[in-house]
Specification:
Radius of gyration: 24 Å
Number of helices: 13
Strand content: under 5%
Distance between the termini: 29 Å
Order of helices and strands: HHHHHHHHHHHEEHH
Number of strands: 2
């Protein structure tokens, strides 16, 4: 789904919405009614002949069912287009960047689990890469014993046992006969938290070690590029959309392979 916060021009967004709803009869009439203007005025605004007003923008935002941030952002786009001085444009652009950055984050795109909601319980789980790996391994029928997990992760059995005991203490695993079961499998950290940074670093150290060992079956890419700030925001939104679609694919998928998925996109 296209994200409003990718857009830097309100007219482009409206044209996108019209195209996306081309099968809706009289859609432009519906938009004009929501904005509180004539259809001809809306058409002229779309083609840069006149400007919409913040009042028009608020009506459209309500029609599209925008939340608070989305409404402020869309009204801000209209105000930006209407701004008559460089100083005012700078102020509006700064606020629009803040809204976009706040909403184009992983934490906003992926709902959090109710488990491990405080850093005291999160740190033991996220400080070592193998904790999450052991935890998720338990969702695969053939990886529910200490020996099987130790062989798969190439780690000593005592480390696996301690990890399983810690997971049991955290309420994320329980003993089941001679093996173990996961009790909660959908966890997600708040982006930017201290524990999140620890977890990201732990997994990248693991990935680096595997690359040094000559692991070649995965898909790895690193590239340094230059691009506009607007295109950087679009790229970030594209990756977030890919991540959301990936999780939608993963959720119903049968537990057969244990994989690590890592995304890196940042300014240097």
């Amino acid at each position: 789904m296209t994200n409003l916060f990718e857009f830097r021009d309100y007219r482009t967004w409206i044209r996108h919405q019209i195209e996306a709803n081309s099968n809706t009869r009289g859609y432009q009439n519906l938009l004009a009614r929501a904005a509180g203007c004539q259809r001809s005025y809306l058409s002229r605004a779309i083609h840069s002949q006149v400007e919409l007003t913040p009042e028009h923008a608020a009506g459209l935002a309500q029609y599209w069912g925008f939340n608070g941030d989305q409404t402020e952002y869309f009204v801000g786009l209209v105000s930006l287009s209407r701004a008559g001085t460089a100083g005012l444009r700078t102020l509006i652009e700064r606020r629009l960047r803040e809204l976009a950055e706040r909403n184009l984050t992983v934490a906003r795109q992926i709902p959090r689990s109710g488990a491990l909601t405080d850093e005291v319980s999160q740190l033991p789980y996220y400080s070592a890469w193998y904790m999450a790996a052991v935890h998720m391994a338990l969702t695969i029928p053939g990886l529910r014993t200490e020996a099987a997990i130790a062989q798969r992760l190439r780690l000593p059995a005592p480390i696996i046992l301690r990890a399983l005991q810690e997971l049991e203490h955290l309420g994320l695993a329980r003993r089941a006969g001679t093996g173990w079961n996961a009790t909660e499998a959908n966890l997600h950290l708040s982006s930017g938290s201290t524990v999140d940074r620890v977890s990201q670093a732990a997994w990248r150290q693991f990935i680096g070690a595997r690359l040094q060992e000559g692991e070649a079956e995965g898909l790895h890419y690193s590239g340094v590029h230059t691009l506009s700030r607007a295109d950087l925001a679009r790229l970030r939104a594209l990756w977030l959309d890919c991540l959301k679609r990936s999780r939608e694919l993963i959720a119903p998928s049968p537990e057969q392979e244990l994989v690590c998925m890592a995304f890196d996109l940042f300014t240097i």
